Amino acid sequence: MFQIGKTIVSEEILENDFVCNLNACKGACCVGGEYGAPLEDSETDKLVDIYQDVKPFLRPEGIAAIEEHGVFVKGEDGEWETPLVNNNECAYVVFSEDGIAKCGLEAAYEAGATKWKKPISCYLYPVRTREYSEFTAVNYHKWEICDPACALGEELKVPIYKFVKDALIKKFGKSWCQELEEVAAENTKS
Fold first, then answer.
1. Are 156 and 19 in contact (CB under 8 A)?
2. Do you find a cis peptide bond into 38, omega within 30 degrees of 0?
């Protein structure tokens, strides 16, 4: 672990490789698990504001779950998250013709219907952040469904922090990310 500003960062995001391999995993991270995507407080307002613009991009099952439970829900841990369809996939998931789970929020963004791409937790994945009173923890979330992404990342020699660089900049800023790259460069020298 090392510190950058008010963050404590796991060295695992420097030491492990990762590149999403949707053809192998079919977007399983949006379908598997017991919880929806974690949401920051500010993102709950965004979901409320853009829901009507996103709705045309969603599946009927997702719309039904959202309209029954809300555009966001409070998880068992007391944190905000996206609702699920039948305790399974995220309500904002859409499926491509070849069965790959994709983000309906991102589809709306790419079509120009909204200006918000998706929750930062999804954008950062496999990096997870957790806010504490004095600092933010920045960790690698290892999940076996992402083994193909780890293999592809290793093959392409792309460390996690480089794979999620744009998301890290969005979350923490350019200077934070530059400092992270300096730490990574020092780590590769030693």
1. yes
2. no
Rounded to two decimals, the pTM is: 0.88
Length of the chain: 190
Backbone φ, ψ for residue 159 (5° rounding): -65, 155
| Amino acid present at 182 | E
Whose structure tokens read 């290892």? 142
Alpha helices in 19-146 (DSSP H): 22-25, 41-54, 60-69, 104-110, 120-124
CB 90 within 8 A of CB 30: yes
Chain-centroid distance, C-alpha 61: 22
What does the pLDDT read at residue 37? 93
**Burial category of 190 from C-beta neighbours within 10 Å (exposed 0-12, middle 13-18, buried 19 and up):** exposed
Helix axes 174-189, 165-172, angle to 10 degrees: 130
Residues 171 and 182: their CA atoms lie apart, in Å, by 18
Q: What does the pLDDT read at residue 111?
A: 97
Q: Which of 122, 121, 123 is nearest to 136 (CA)?
A: 121
